[in-house]
Amino acid sequence: MDDTLVFKNVLFFVSGSTGSGKSSLAVLLAEKLKEQGYEQVVIINCDVSQFYFDLPIATNKVKQTDMKGIKHTFLGFLSADDAFVREPEESYIGSDQPQSAETDKEKVYFDGIHCYVNRVCKYINNLFAHAEKTAAILCGGTCYYIQSILIENMLVGSENIDVCDDVEDKDLWHHVNLVDPEIASRYHPNDTRRLRRLLDIYRSSGKRPTELYEETKRFRFDPRTCFFIWAFRSLDALYPLLDKRVDEMVSQGLVEEVKQFFHQHQNDVRKTSIFEAIGVKEFLDAWQSDETSRQRDAAVVKAIESIKAHTRHYASKQVRWLTNRLPPLLVGASYKESIFDFGSRYVKMDLDTDVSGSVERRLDGLLTFFLHKNQSELLKDTVEFPLMEARKNTTPVTQEHCSLCDFVVYGRDQMSLHLNSKRHRGALKRQHLEKSHLEQFGVPVPPRKKHKNDENKS
Description:
By secondary structure, the chain is α/β, with parallel strands linked by helices. It has 16 helices and eleven strands.
């Protein structure tokens, strides 16, 4: 098999929504690549919450028994305050094994996505430079990080959060609208995190965000040796699996793990980066209050339900990104000054219909197609190629104004929802009444009488 390899070094991307089975698929892919003749295969984590050393249950880090002897990297290398506790390129030993962190050396802090992208790219390039027959698998669901490894110039602006510190949240949309009305029209004024990022981009680069986003995107690595597998599950099938996974995490000790973390960090827990991870912040009311044990038990139950709801919401967000955000970038991305057709390298593998090893058989066929350019019979009706399918033209999300209600909506389909709402139907009824009254009596309809509650308020 070694002599038939078309590519001596390959880079795979395995992504999908949380709970889709992408981690298991990445391990199976690594085993299959070894069977194909790749002597060194490494899995690189791209899930931000799993960067942290603490909370292995809450962040669902891989166990040694599930790693199947495949080297895993970029896992459990940061403290709660973003300091390195080990080198991310070192092999991870598994969340079910005793862990040790280097705490006696001078602290060096992780500098966000730029730091991650630089270290991962350097790591991959070193792997490929020093050995042939090497495969790297980037696996995770943190969309922006994956996108930034795959596409070269997706990182704009700086990581300095103080660049726009002089602007209050309520004024952010106005400031963005002054410099880039086109991009501002796509965001709700309450979306302060993204608006602050847009203003940061403008102040750091001197260019409008619209200009930067319209620049040609380039593949960071040779796209001829890159392949993307989307581990897909429909949301109807995924949601029960996610709820079940949360229940399993609870039985494994999630509640006690988070409780110890809160007690360890006490009043500083909100300042830790990992606090924002799903499975952590939901327990704030339970472990930072003076409530009775009965009230605390009720708060824990409520936290678990919130974790399930937040996980489902996050999964749907990831599916939207893989469906709507990433494909247009790949379609227009270039390599060596010309657009590269990535269509046959971006695959959607449906894991809903797995029966008795069908995923393994489909993966065999997929690798035969990818690595040996042989159109296997196993590919028929088992995977999709989204980039090769005709895509509907989608328009960017923008503001839409209902003049009748004097109401602004943001987002696709939001105007149709408003037009069917009780508020709009009531306004139409009122408009029809006013028109009929004017035609019949020649005078406008008298203003509505104030409600007693309104009078009390005034």
